[in-house]
């Protein structure tokens, strides 16, 4: 089975913000400030709606048999359309099990709107059984199917009041949790030209999710105790081999491997 754990990082879509709110002749920073203010006035906080979130990083953990890889799509010069195109192209090619933390509540709806904006086709992702019978009972879109496993949703028993932040669950399990940044600091880092730091942070977040995932697979019986230990060791070995990536080395050293 191919498993693809994913996470995205976003910034305000100031281009759409200018169109929607008539914020012409403002800088990107001032446009975002105005968007935040309008949002606070409407809902009491400045967390922008999904369709006004622009993707600047998509990080992945790919697990297939003995193979393991951690990376961010594209490079620092890649635009949003390229990142999303790469994501859905990989999904079309490998048809993996998608794994996320709050992917159903945030990451995937954002990807939907941004793919719509850029005109990015993804027929396998949107398949629900009309063309491929196997997707009728297990597809990416149904909340209760496991072709996309939203760990936050499943572990909360699909009860919103039981939702927990990844940082706290990861820390409970002796994983590093948030490293070097958090979601509310991404926009400031982007304005300061620190896109690499954002990509690195996204990779450590997706690693936290992967560690929670393999532990979940253990408790629900899809991995034996020895399989779980092997999966941990495989990740340790991989991270040790990435000695030229300080953020992965830091993640390795900050994890309690048990």
Tally of separate domains: 1
CATH H-level homologous superfamily name: Ribonuclease H-like superfamily/Ribonuclease H
Give the CA-CA distance, first to last residue.
24 Å
What fold name stands as the CATH topology?
Nucleotidyltransferase, domain 5
Low-pLDDT windows of residues: none
How would you classify the helix and strand content by structural class? alpha/beta
For the sheet with most strands, the description reads:
5 strands, mixed
What's the structural blueprint in terms of helices and strands?
Layout: E1 2-12, H1 14-21, H2 28-43, E2 53-64, E3 67-72, H3 80-94, E4 97-100, H4 103-118, H5 123-126, E5 148-150, H6 151-155, H7 166-172, H8 186-191, H9 195-219, H10 225-241, H11 246-254
Parallel strand pairs: 1-4, 4-5
Antiparallel strand pairs: 1-2, 2-3
Helix pairs in contact: 1-2, 3-4, 7-9, 9-10
């Amino acid at each position: 089975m191919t498993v693809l754990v994913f996470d995205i990082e976003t910034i305000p879509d100031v281009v759409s913000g200018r169109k929607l709110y008539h914020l012409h002749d403002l800088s990107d920073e001032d446009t975002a400030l105005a968007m935040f203010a309008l949002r606070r006035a409407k809902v009491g906080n400045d967390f922008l709606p999904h369709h006004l979130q622009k993707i600047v990083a998509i990080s992945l953990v790919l697990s297939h048999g003995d193979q393991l890889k951690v990376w961010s799509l594209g490079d620092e010069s890649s635009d949003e359309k390229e990142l999303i195109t790469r994501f859905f192209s990989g999904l079309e090619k490998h048809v993996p099990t998608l794994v996320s933390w709050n992917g159903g509540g945030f990451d995937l709806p954002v990807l939907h709107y941004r793919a719509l904006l850029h005109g990015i086709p993804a027929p396998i992702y949107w398949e629900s059984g009309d063309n491929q019978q196997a997707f009728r009972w297990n597809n990416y879109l149904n909340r209760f199917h496991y072709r996309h496993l939203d760990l936050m949703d499943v572990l909360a028993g699909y009860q919103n009041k039981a939702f927990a932040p990844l940082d706290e669950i990861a820390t409970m399990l002796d994983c590093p949790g948030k490293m070097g940044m958090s979601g509310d600091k991404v926009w400031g880092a982007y304005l300061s030209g620190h896109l690499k730091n954002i990509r690195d942070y996204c990779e450590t977040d997706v690693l936290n999710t992967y560690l929670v995932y393999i532990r979940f697979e253990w408790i629900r019986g899809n991995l034996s105790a020895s399989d779980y230990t092997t999966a941990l060791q495989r990740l340790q070995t991989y991270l040790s081999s990435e000695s030229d990536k300080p953020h992965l080395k830091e993640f390795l050293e900050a994890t309690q491997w048990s």
